[in-house]
Write a structure and sequence with these properties.
The chain is an all-alpha fold and about 200 residues long. It has nine helices and no strands. The chain binds adenosine-5'-diphosphate and magnesium ion (2 copies). Adenosine-5'-diphosphate binds next to helix 2, helix 5, helix 6 and helix 9. InterPro entries: DhaK_L_YcgS, DhaL_dom, DhaL_dom_sf, Dihydroxyacetone_Kinase.
Length: about 200
Amino acid sequence: MDDATLIRALVTACCATIEEHAGELTKLDQAIGDGDHGLNMSRGFKAIAAETDALAAMTLGDALKKAGMTLVMKVGGASGPLYGSLLMDMGKSASTAPANEAEVAEMFRAGIDAVKKRGKSDVGAKTMLDVLVPVAETVSEGGDLEAVRARTDEALEATRDMLAIKGRAAFLGERSLGHIDPGARSSALLIHAVCNVLEA
Ligand code: ADP
Ligand code: MG
Ligand code: MG
């Protein structure tokens, strides 16, 4: 796949899964947040979809940077700047499509470091990082797509029994227990979408 084909496929798959699951993301955020995660993600990814042609004309790195900036600008909630930082720093780390797994792992690591910085957060706080970080581990260990998918689902489910200590859910204290984190769910959806594209 050349960069343009890859970028189009990634945009299409990511936007489609967010649209399809926007209602579910909203429900999860109604349980432990303010109920706007579906809307926030949908608004951001619709704006990215509207830029598909411009993105496909860029290198993968520049496209990731531009898509990240779009999320920062279009999404009001915490998730906009956080996913925006993820994509922007992934884009800064890899100019063209990564040639091997080690480069994918490095790109992912750079993006996740930016999320940690921006969110002043790390694993164990019941956030998107509780999916992103374990999955990045599996990628850097050389895990195949099946291993990545399995780790994603396991990590997502594990957020259910975590106590939220970052983001709005932290206000709930113990009442955040028993619910999957909305941002962890959107991260899982996006990872599955990327896996499907890479497999095709
Ligand atoms: P908001 O909380 O501003 O309404 P969203 O509902 O769109 O924004 O996003 C909420 C998600 O963002 C949470 O479920 C969590 O995964 C993620 N999140 C919130 N704060 C942080 C943080 N400091 N670090 C990492 N992720 C965070
Ligand atoms: Mg919210
Ligand atoms: Mg909000």
